[in-house]
Amino acid sequence: MSTSFEPSGLQKDLFIDGAWQQAASGATFPVENPATHEVIARVADGGPDEARAAIEAAGRAQAEWAKSTPRERADILRRAFELVIANTDRLAAIMTAEMGKPLAEARGEVAYGADMLRWFSEEAVRIGGDNATSNDGNTRIMITKEPVGPCVLVTPWNFPLAMGTRKIAPAVAAGCTMVFKPAELTPLTSLALVDIFKQAGLPDGVLNVVTTSSASSVVGTWMSSGIARKVSFTGSTEVGKILLRQAADNVMRSSMELGGNAPFIVLADADIEKAVDGALKAKMRNMGEACTAANRFFVHRSVVEEFGEKFAKRISELKVGNGALAGTDVGPLIEQKGLDKVESLVKDAVTKGARILTGGTRPEGPGYFFTPTVLTDVTADAELMSTEIFGPVAAITAFDSEDDVIRLANDTEWGLVGYVFTENMDKALRFSAELEVGMVGLNTGLVSNPAAPFGGVKQSGLGREGGKVGIEEFLETKYTAIAV
After folding, report:
1. One digit per residue, pLDDT tens: the chain, 484 residues?
2. Exactly one of 105, 176, 291, 343 is catalytic; which is it?
3. Which of 15, 277, 327, 421 reaches 20 to 30 Å from 295, CA-CA?
């Protein structure tokens, strides 16, 4: 497989009712390589008319698709899994070109996304139900599961393949049709994934995709259509709230994976080398552009200096550059707005007393690059303590007592994930129980896994993706009373 980026082979059109098509207006929007500022493709710019056609196609296909057998759906997902694996290098090259992450990370995302397809291919044939006898003995209670119906899927730019498979795979497994809006910044990977589903034999109308520069006009059309029965969104809390309000008008099922402000806690008895390794994974994966990224580092005062020095040394050794080049560890941020935000957060923290242990600058030359940065002595009033950084910046604050750090960790509107490093099992279990998050990484900086239920609490969202419960988000429970 070639690892080069081949613009000539890209899908760039809308996909509606089994056919690739241009926007009726002929409009397109550019997709930029964030490492070079080069426009690598122009993608069809759909609007309300195309959105309406897409949701109507999903509505027409739903009844027949719901009748498909679990094995049929499982086999389609398995074929899609095999095609994704076979096209790993191609998909990774597209992802690196439009999103910026190093090729090694892009290949890792392809593997993770493919595993979602494999996981739900196995779950498709295990959709169950229940039966019982009523307490008076006069009724047999039969409980079955049915697809919820046409789904609106909206994904972010930071994991363009994995976020697509994490939503499409359980919908396919459950027997739901879909309308799908990929992120404007990274549509090419998503369109390549859709083409793979077509090759895998997914029937016409089951998966419909509208790329657009006007997300509200497309998604708003779907939400108000009366056809869609569920929305699954990954992105900002602000947009999630808008979608929840829209979903209320038609009482739609909703899954929301929203923002994060993850605490990374290093207790006094932690293995510091293990904690530093975990910190690198939790902070630097995807250049820090992840909802699961460690945002606030709380380190016990007795080990804060050692941790800070070792972490800063490891961070400073990372090679920043174009993700397509061999040896690159850290690629660019996605766009100018994100770069400006990160720089502003660092300046604000330093103004309020933080010290820079490494980084803190923009490299010269093209691309939205920011040098990986470690700050220490970060004060509670620094803006980055209450804002999702979404960049390669680690903010370290010392703490003295476990009660204090739990309070500090929970002092946020978000609750997606928390990381805890300790060699004491009692402390590990206490922190796991008392952190107000949907996921906890104990002595690990990675929590994402197809077999695990991914999701948060508070304003980090509702619902879960992955694991045994992931498919339940796309199923309705029906009860039939049978007289006996």
Report:
1. 344 566 668 999 999 999 999 999 999 999 999 999 999 999 999 999 999 999 999 999 999 999 999 999 999 999 999 999 999 999 999 999 999 999 999 999 999 999 999 999 999 999 999 999 999 999 999 999 999 999 999 999 999 999 999 999 999 999 999 999 999 999 999 999 999 999 999 999 999 999 999 999 999 999 999 999 999 999 999 999 999 999 999 999 999 999 999 999 999 999 999 999 999 999 999 999 999 999 999 999 999 999 999 999 999 999 999 999 999 999 999 999 999 999 999 999 999 999 999 999 999 999 999 999 999 999 999 999 999 999 999 999 999 999 999 999 999 999 999 999 999 999 999 999 999 999 999 999 999 999 999 999 999 999 999 999 999 999 999 999 999 9
2. 291
3. 327
**What six digits make up the tokens of 249?**
């008008």
257 carries an active-site annotation: yes
Q: Which residues of 357-382 are buried (b: 16+ CB within 10 A; e: fewer)?
A: bbbbeeeeeebbbbbbbbbbbbeeeb
Work out the end-to-end distance of the chain between its first and last CA atoms, rounded to an integer number of angstroms.
Answer: 62
Question: Which is catalytic among the residues 50, 109, 257, 388?
Answer: 257
Beta-ladder partners of 480: 142
Among 115, 111, 119, smallest CA distance to 95 is for 111
